[in-house]
Amino acid sequence: MLNKTIDRRDFLRKAGLLTGSLAALQFPVWGKSIFALDYPLHNIPEDKKIDPSWARSLYQRGEATTYYKQRNEFRYIGMPVGGLHAGTVYVGGDGRLWLWQIYNETFEGAQEGIDPKTVSWNDGTTVRKIRARDGSAYVEPAIADNRRVLEQGFAVKVVLNGKTFIKELSEEHWEDISFKPAYPIAYIQYRSKDFPVTVNLKVYSPFIPLDAENSALPATILRLDIRNTTASPMKVSVLGWMENGVNKLTGLEKTGKRINKASADSAAVSIFSSFEPAEEKLKEALDYGTMCFSLQGTSGLTQCRIDPWPVKEKHFEGKELAEANAGAPEKLVAGIRLSQDLAPGKSLKADYSVSWHFNNANPNLKKIVKDAEEGFHYARRFKDAAAVSSYLNSNFKKLTIQTELWSETWNNSTLPHWFLERTFLNIGTLATANTYRFADGRFWSWEGVGACAGTCTHVWQYAHSVARIFPELERDLRQRVDLGVGFKEDSGAIIFRAENESRPAIDGQAGTVLRFYREHQMSKDAAFLNHNWPKIKKAVQFMLDQDKNGDGMTDTPMENTLDAVWEGEIAWIVGLCIAAASAAQQMAEEVGDRSFAAVCEKYVKDGSRNMEKELFNGEYFIHRPDAKEGRKKLGSYNTCHIDQVYGQSWAFQVGLPRVIGKEKTVAALKALWKYNFTMDVGPYIKTHTGGRPYALAGEGGMVMNTNPHNEPKPFGEDVTWQLGYFHECMSGFEHQVAAHLMAEGMVEESLILTRVIQDRYHASKRNPFNEIECSDHYARAMASYGTFISACGFEYHGPKGYIRFAPKWNKADFKAPFTSAAGWGTYSQKKTGQKQVHRLELKYGELKLEKITLEKVDGAAVKSLSAMIGSQHIPVTFKQEGNAIFIASARSMTIKENEFLTLSIS
Does pTM surpass 0.90? Predict the structure, then answer.
C-alpha cells in the first residue's frame, strides 16, 4: 500500500501516472486470488434461463413505473429536481425534498458521492471496504430520512361539516401514496380513507430541451392540486414551509443570525432568506448565499417564522409576519399558506417554488479549474435567490407549460414505459453536483459526483443524451475545451481531462472526433464545422498518426478509459478510430477538403479490412499483442471484451456507413451475449473477485471482460489493479452494447440487457435515478439514450436538412419523440390496409427538412406518395430501395411549432 504521508498528487507525478485520474489512487487493494496462476474458470452459463413470457412482455407498452408506500418502496428514492449544474436537490417518494447538495462542498477525496461514506461488502470471498467512488451507494444506498438536511414540506387542513382534518404530506400521514417518475417530473398522489380530499403533487425544475439557459435555474417547482372528493362544500387550506438554509454548515454558535423577509408583487408572495454574519470571513463560506420560498399569485399569507412540528391548527391561523430572525445555529423556518372554499369535485391549486444562490466555488476546485474562480453561470445571470425567484415567477406559465409539454411528448409513445424511463432518466446527471457551468459559460464535470476531474473525454464520449437534448452545451464543450484549453496546437492532441491532465487518451481522441461530427449534425447550419475544421482536422490527423505501420489499425500505446496503457492492436480502439476516420471523411467532404477526405477514406478501407482479417478469432474480436512486448502488460487479448465492436455502435449513432462487416459484428455481439451476459452475476463475481459492486448476486448484467476459453493468464503476465474492472458490470458500457444490439436487429437481447439494468435500480433496492460507476450519477450512464436512438432507427443531419426513422418493432403502429437542432416533437407511423401514414408533429421550435428516409412496413412497392404541411401540398420526389423510401423536396420544408408534416404512402 502507499505510504499515507506521501502527497497524493506528488506521488502520481513521481510515478508517472495520471494527475487527473484518482481512480488509480483510491481503488481497492485487490485480493491475491486475481493474481494467481490458476485463473478462475469461466462460469457464465450459455443457457440464460429467460422466461419467454417475461421476454415478450418487454416489448409491450405496459404501465408507467409507479412506486408505492404500501410496498415500502420510498426509502431510497431521490430524483434530481433542481436545475442543470445547480447542485443536487432530490425529491423523495413521499414528495419531500432532501439531500440539498447545493453548498459547493463536493470535492475529490473529501466529499465524494451523494452520501460520502465507506461501507463493508462481502464479495464472496472476503469482506471489503467500499468507498463512494467504488460504489458504496450501490451496496448501501443513501436513505432519504437520514439526509433531509433542511426542513421542508406541506400540510393540508380541511374543514368539512364543522369537523377539522389536518395531514402533512409525508409518508407516515397517509394510507396510500404513489410516486410516478417521468423525468424531469415526479408525480406524487396522496389518499387516505380518513381524509376527504386527494392531493396530487408535481415536482420538477424547468427542463426544456434545446433551452439550456431556462433549464439551468437553481430552483424547484412544487405544484399542488387538492381536490374535494366529497358531495359537500368544504374549506381547504395548504401550508408550505421552508427552512432558511443559508450558512447551514458553517452557521455555528454566535456566528451570526438568519433573516427571513416577506415580499409580494403582482406575480407571487415570497420569503427571502439570508444570513448576517458576525464576521466578514463567513461571507466566503461555501454555504454563504441566499434562498427564496415563493407561492404564485397574491393570495398567500406569509409567516417568516413558524413553530416546530407537528403541524396543528394553530399553524394555519397565525398572523402574517413580514420579518423574522434567529441566531445561528437555531433553525429559522418560514411558511406560506393559502385557503379556499371548495365545492364538490373542485380543486385548490397552489404553485410553490424554492430557489437558491450559493456562488462561492470550492477553493480546491478553483485550484484545478481557473474558470471556477468567478463562480457559477447562474450567479452571472442572477444577483441572488430573490432574482432567481422573480424570474421564475414572471415566466412561470411559459416555463411550466414547456416543461410539462416535453414530459407529455416524451411519454406519448408506443415504446414501453419502462424503456422510455431507463433510456432517458440518466440525463438527470446534469442536475446534480456532478456538473458545473462556470460564470464564463464553460461546462465542466466530474466523472461521477466529486470523483475524477475534467469532463473526461473517454467517459463523456459514451454519453449520447446531452448532445440530443442540449446540443449547445456539447458544441461549446467541443470549442472551448477540446479545441481550446485541452488542445495541443502543435500535435492536434486533445488532453483527455483538459487542464487536469497532460496527455491524450486514444479512445477519448477518437470519440471526440465522432462527437465533432455529431455536434455538426445537431446544428442548424454548417457554421460550427466550418469555424472549427482546421483544428478538427489536426485532431483527426493526430489520431491517424497513431497507426505506426499504416494498416489502418492504431497500435501506439496510449491511455484508455480502463485507466491503463495497453500495447498492441486492440479491437475496440481500432474500430473506434476507424469510425472516427469515417466521420472525419464525411466532415472533410462537407467542407470541400477532398484530399483529406481521401486520406480518411483509405484509412477506413484499410482498417476495416485488416480488423476483420487480423483481429477476428472466429467468434469475436480480440486484442492482438504487440510483436515485441507480447502479453507482458495488462490487456484483453483473446478474452471477450464488452466494447470490442464499439466503433460500429458509434457509427450507428451518427448515421455513418458500416465500418465493420455485419456478419462478424453480429457474431461478436452473440459472443458477448453467450459469454458475458448472465441473469445472475452472483456465481461469477464470487469466483472472479476484485471488481467493484455495481451488480450483486441475484441481479443480471453483462460482465466487462471474460475468459471463455479458460486460458491461463488471460489478461497478461503483469496484471495490475485495473484488472478489477474486468469483473464488473458497469452500466454505461452495458447501455452501449444495448444500443448496438438494437441497431443490429437483436431487439430482444437489447431489451433484456436494458431491463436488467432497470431492475438493478428498482426502488426497493436503491435509488432508481442514480446509476453508479466511479461515484454517483456517473456520466457514462447517459449512453442509455443511444438505445432509444437505435430503437427509433433515428438519424438526423441539421445542415443537410435530413431525417430518418426506421423503428425496430411495432412498425405498423409506432410513435416516439424526437429532437433536432431547433425543434422537437413527435414522430408516428401507422399502416392501415394498403396505406401507411407517417407524421412529424412539431411541439417546440421549428424543423427544416430537405430529405427524409422512411421504411415500407410490408416491403411492397410504393405506388404513390404525397406530402402535406397542414393543408398545404408539398411537392416531393421519392425512390425505393428494398424497404427504404428516400424522399426529397426541391426546396427546404419548414415545419413550425404546432404544425404537422404528413407523408401518405400507398
Answer: yes
